[in-house]
Model the fold of this input.
Amino acid sequence: MAEITAKLIQELREKTSAGMMDCKKALTENNGDVQAAADWLRQKGIVKAASKAGRVAASGLVTVVKCDDMGCVVELNAETDFVAKNEKFQKLVSDVAARALELGGDFDATLAAVKDDIAATIATIGENMNLRRIAKVSGDHIYTYVHNALVPGMGQIGVIVAINGGDDAKVDEIGTKIAMHIAANKPEFMTIADVDPVAVEREKKVFIESGATANKPENVVEKMVQGRINKYYAESVLEEQPFVMDPSKTVKQVVAEAGGTLAGFAYYLLGEGIEKAEDNLADEVSKMLA
Done:
């Protein structure tokens, strides 16, 4: 077996743009032969995948999967909306989600398990793709909802909510509805106790500095500020939000009436937070000629 030196790895990396570990593996598999290793990388789809890795992937699909007491929301990104309609990409999303569930929602373990599948799909379809994030929710009862579903279970918004305890029939009646509520209202926190105290103080400061409390007695200011914080909770905390299908009750009250308690939730909006660079035509032409 030839010695796999840093120089060989660097040479293959410069030749293929593949990652260091992929280069080392390719050289090991091919007894240190750089050209054979480069061909091996091409056969595995890694070279083509590496050449596209710099492209921003902000489209794709969000999907949800569940078993008896756990669910996962998974986001897999691609460069364009068209890929989301590709059956090969949809199968990849389904396979990745299944592995995520099998591996208990562990992102690193899932990525390691599906890395080659993603690279192969990149080579086939010709767009950069990446597993962006995975959220896990556990509880006695698991409910899911996908908004703007392109195919069953896959779309632009994915939600999972878990409820502990309660009457099974009553909890089943409200579970999916609460998942739909989350999709519509996008809460940031589950309970008031989950709210970052810094965020609460920021809300107070913004409200006071808005001038709304100017020239008011101290006791009135306290009530006004507390009213604003209560409003903030009603907007951002799931338990405190008016239930979208019966605004006379909070989500917490609706769950309590079924005898249960909220155990957790996850909400993913496809591409949220990804900044996609805007290139002009001259830049595009320059890149093609480079």
About this structure: Residues 277-282, 284-290 have pLDDT under 50 and may be disordered.
